[in-house]
Design brief:
Blueprint (H helix, E strand, L loop, with lengths): L3 H8 L4 H7 L4 H6 L3 H11 L5 E5 L4 E5 H8 L4 H22 L12 H8 L2 E8 L4 E4 L2 E5 L3 E7 L9 E11 L14 E10 L3 H4 L1 E5 L3 E6 L3 E6 L5 E9 L3 H6 L25 E11 L4 E12 L4 E2 L2 E7 L8 E2 L5 E5 L4 E5 L1 E9 L5 E10 L1 E6 L8 E8 L3 E10 L4 E12 H8 L4
Antiparallel strand pairs: 1-2, 3-4, 3-7, 5-6, 6-12, 7-8, 9-10, 10-11, 11-12, 13-14, 13-20, 15-16, 16-25, 17-25, 18-19, 20-21, 22-23, 23-24, 24-25
Helix pairs in contact: 4-6, 6-7
Protein name: FBX15 protein
GO cellular component, one term: SCF ubiquitin ligase complex
Organism: Trogon melanurus
Length: 437
Amino acid sequence: SLPPETLMKIFSYLDAASLLSVGCVNKHFYQLASDNGIWLKIYFRCFQPERTIWKMNSEQTETVSVGCAALHDRKPGYWKKEYIFKQIAAVKTRVMRFLKPVDPYTGLPSKNKEAMKASGLSWIIVLKDKNGKEHVMEKAKLSFKDTSVTVLWYSTNWPCLDILSTLKLFGVTPLLPDQSRAPIKNGPRLRSLIAEYHLANLIESSVAIGADKLVQLFSLNPGLLVGLWKEKNEIAFVMASLHYHQLLERSTLGSATVQYAPPPNKPVLDDIDPEYGLHDYSLHFDMHGGSCTYLCVTFRSLFCRKGDIANGYLKLTALSVKDNAKHSPLTGTLGLSWETDVFKGNVKDCYVMDVTLLEETGKPFWCFSAPVYLELSSKSSSLYDCAGPIYTTDYADSEGKVCVEFLWLEETKESFIVSLVLYISVKKVNNWYGTNY
């Protein structure tokens, strides 16, 4: 009921984030809160001081305030958009400074954690039930590794699993990040869709990867783990494994409904020859289970000959069973740690696998982070004097497969990784290089 002039006077005392929030009340408030006069003052206060320009005509020379000229020559809302775009550009500039230094082992930016902090990035999951109602879960715990970040959500107020239809994973950034204070929870934010999962018939449609006395773990591709209470068959926690490669782009450059699509690779002319095969690849391989890292190793000079191409895949052998000198022991006993508001646990024989495969120029070629599990193999080994059972881990997605073998030595209570083989999709290789294998 207040007159527009009074509302405008009140709005003129608000900061940018508050103005954007007020504009969401109704159309009338939106129009008033988009006033060029208010936003021009905010713009100049943040980016540049008000200055004068000179206008020339045949009779006289006069100085005109930039603010006056800008107000009369621009459409309503122009300076609000300019302020927002320039703020976003300033954040991108800060983030890019952190992304320039590259780790020589992983081939990825070495200051990903700092870049995420500079952007104000966080992650949420949105659960939609069969009636269309959305449940937003924001409380998350982060765990950073060399090549990935693990995000864990837990709550005492999960909606009933039987009524849920989809789960969406979003990256969230504040629209107007302020480096001097923490992001405002209810302030204006941008959502970027990372992945969408269907929860209908979750137990039947997903992969069961392990259980302990309290929970069962189910894996959904890509990189999502859902923990269900054993007795109630309800959600206990959700864990997402996010690889650093393209993480900032996927978490910031997509929209609330459309996932970010990376640009196609521009192949570099070299001596790549389908008759010769792939060469000089590097693999950074990381195994962890929450706070504990079981193995972190880099393999270099991987190659694939023409004869190693079969059934639509190119084979890259990082570690062979016969190469005893390179077999590496694992640190600790494999298991995946989890927690909720009340309980904690560890599911044995499960872990998170991080794969970072770099091509010959050092570009990330195939990267993922995913929860996986061990299976007892029917094979037996006589590699060591104290031969023990062989365990395997198999992972597959649309771009390739990973096959890992472990040897358990009962006498020393140690596990060794004895084989690691990657199978890269021929289709992916052809798309990357523009060749025809």
